[in-house]
């Protein structure tokens, strides 16, 4: 693998590690809120989950960095991709570059009769792209102080839903693959992340040419 690909792989792994760390922090704040009912602790959980999702989106730039930067440079307003943070907008750009950019959640590898290892896709228990965007957008409105003349935000109802969002985000990151198609590199990175905070492990796969990603 070229040096540039290796450095981007490190960035990807670091961002996944950050996302896992923030999910752990969110669990801690949510657990504390369950005992104290102190709203700032619930809001802290919301902030960490949203930042975790942003970390996943920023990680997804890494395998597509050159194309992403070039595409963003064409924008008439704010062409500097280094200032990007909004997960939904990052996803919209990535979809125009690599339709298979979104991580695919995997089950542990099973050894095949020929000695190869095969990863099946998870069928449930993870954040799909649709659920990801929905959760990210919804959490955004809880990042600001409540306007007393506005509509009720029903924070306590949200508190009941956050554990599932956290679990599904973990379910996406625990073991996943990201697909890469650039002029220099065609293949995939399989990432095994740790909920303990240690650096994710990465397996590199190189394709001999163009390839197709099946839906299942």
Kindly describe this structure.
The protein has six helices and six strands; from the N terminus they run ααααβββααβββ. It is α+β, with helices and mostly antiparallel strands and 216 residues long. It has one domain (3-206). The strands form two sheets. It has a four-stranded antiparallel sheet with strand order 1-4-5-6. The chain has a two-stranded antiparallel ribbon with strand order 2-3. Helix 1 (3-36) packs antiparallel against helix 2 (39-61). The longest helix is centred in the N-terminal third of the chain and has 34 residues, at 3-36. The chain is globular, with a radius of gyration of 19 Å.
Overall domain count: 1
Helices, by number, come to 6
Number of strands: 6
Q: What portion of residues is helical?
A: 40-55%
Order of helices and strands: HHHHEEEHHEEE
Adjacency order of strands in the biggest sheet? 1-4-5-6
End-to-end separation in angstroms reads: 28 Å
Structural class assignment = alpha+beta
Shape: globular
Question: What is the makeup of the main sheet?
Answer: 4 strands, antiparallel
Low-confidence stretches: none
Task: Report strand %.
Answer: 5-15%
Write the layout of secondary structure elements.
Blueprint: H1 3-36, H2 39-61, H3 65-73, H4 87-97, E1 104-105, E2 110-111, E3 117-118, H5 129-140, H6 155-173, E4 175-181, E5 186-192, E6 201-206
Antiparallel strand pairs: 1-4, 2-3, 4-5, 5-6
Helix pairs in contact: 1-2, 1-6, 2-4, 2-5, 2-6
